[in-house]
Structures are given as structure tokens and as C-alpha cells.
Amino acid sequence: MTIAFSSRLRALAICSLAVLASGAGLIPAQAQSIVVMVNGDPITDYDIEQRMKLNFLSTRKQQSRQEVINELIDDKVKIKEGKKFGVEPTASDVDQSFAGMGSRMRLNAEQLTKSLESQGVRPETLKARIKAEIVWTSLVRGRYKERLLVSDKDVAAAVAAAGGDSDQQGQAFEYKMQPIVLIVSNSSNQAVMEARHKEAEALRARVQTCADANNVFKTTANAVIKEIVVKTSADIPPNLRKLLDDTPIGHLTPPEATKQGIQMVALCARTPTTVDTPKKRQIREEMYTKKYEATSKAYLQEVRKAAMIEYR
């Protein structure tokens, strides 16, 4: 009797919230039909509809309704498991990740919100998915840190099995670089760009050390000398890596047109290092991803088995 009475109270409370929301013009009442209860937390038709729209925007593939329901159930159990271990991202954490996602799409948070709304998706729908991902990543990496480790021995064995390290990737370097830009405004014509390119070539011939580069470009009009950057072979694309390997220490790479103007890079040092080569980095990341996915899948199955999932 107590269980039945509690269930009725819960149902009445949820229905009341739905009526209030629809009365305020927030969410259509018919869209608030509860489909699943997960540990006492409802998943409604509206939740499912919203996630389906969001996923279609992300993948351009139409998922089945049950696939989306399973995904929403997963998010609910992830959030609850996070609370169990004190992993609860703040609204600020979620907003920061939301803004970061927009930035990768060259949009600010407000523009991303408007873009979603124009497609019929509330920003809260994406934020809910982001929150679950933050929680779950923290849980898996935190609880199973040792299990996810990829040893150097395993990486070396995998590299050997893949045919070894080749194409100048057998040795890794640490590059100490200083980018230099001769600024050209966006409104400038091609002739101005070509003139600055010739100027860059002439100045480049005068540089024999990074100290020379600083002295030369400090007195050059509309030139910017950026902070020194240190990267390893594994951090640099193959085309730039070859360019740096072909550049003598202290000299500048050939001038290149960019959005800011004409850019060159002063190579201040190129030092052999024992860190991962590009090939090893790739294999290490692939091995880690494989371990993470297997661990995450097993952990989620365990959490779902312990969850109270009630279809309506």
C-alpha cells in the first residue's frame, strides 16, 4: 500500500509540473507523457524528441526511438553514479564546455544557442548530454586509472607488429620555434601581399640565429615577433615537421601567406628526445581509446543492471 501510494504521489507531482509548464507556454502538455522512469527520474516524449533532433544535427543519421531512449537512460544512470562518488559538474563547468564546443565550430555560446533553437533544439538538451559526458569521463578515468595505462613496452610491441617506425619517424625531436608575422591588413590587395612576401625573403636572408631574428624584426614596420613555442615531433603535422627538419638551426622557414599576413618561423633549436615519435603517439592513443571504450562499456553495463528502469 505504501509503495502504491508513493507511486501515485510521484505521478501526481510530475503531472502537476507538466500542467504548470504547459500553462506557462514552456512545453506542450502532450509532449510531457512519461515513457521511462530511471531511478525515479522521468524521461518524457519531449526529452526523446529533443535528443533525436540533436543527434540528427550531430550525425545526420536518423536513430531509432529505442536507441535514443537507451542513450537517455544511460545518461540518467551516469549522472546518478556520479553523485554517488561526488562527481557533479557545476552549471559553470557545463557552460564552459558548451562554449568550447561552439568555439570549435567558430561560434560563441550565444550563436550556438541560436543555431540550435533555429533547428528546434533547446540548448539545455545539448547541455544535458554534455553534463553526462563530463561525469562519465571523470568516473571512468578516475576509478579505472590503472586499468587504462598503456605501457611503453606494449606500445613498442604494437609498433613492431605494425611494421616498425619509418619515414624519419624513428627518432623524435623537440623543436624550439619563434613565429614571426609581417602584418598585411585584410583590405590590402594582392600587390601588397606580394611586396611583403619579397620583403620577408630579403629579411630572411639576414637571419642566422634567433637573436638575429629578434633584432631584425623589432625594427621592421608592422612586424610581430610571437612567444617561443616548444613542440615535439608527435605534436607537429608531417608537412611542417619536414619543413623544420630541412631548416638549419637559427634560420627562418620560407615565407607563407596566412590570414594575418606573411608568416615565417625561426627555428631556435632542434633537440633529439625520447618522447613518443608520431607513430608511437598514434598507436598509444589508439590503444588507450580501445581500453577506455572497453572499460566504459563494462562499467556502464554494471551500473545499468543496478538501476531501477520502469517503462510506462
UniProtKB/TrEMBL annotation:
Keywords: Signal
Pfam families linked to this entry: SurA_N_3 (PF13624)
Signal peptide residue numbers: 1-31
Database matches in InterPro entries: OMP_Chaperone_SurA, Trigger_fact/SurA_dom_sf
UniProt entry tagged with the keyword GTP-binding: no
Residue runs in coiled coils: none
Protein name per UniProt: SurA N-terminal domain-containing protein
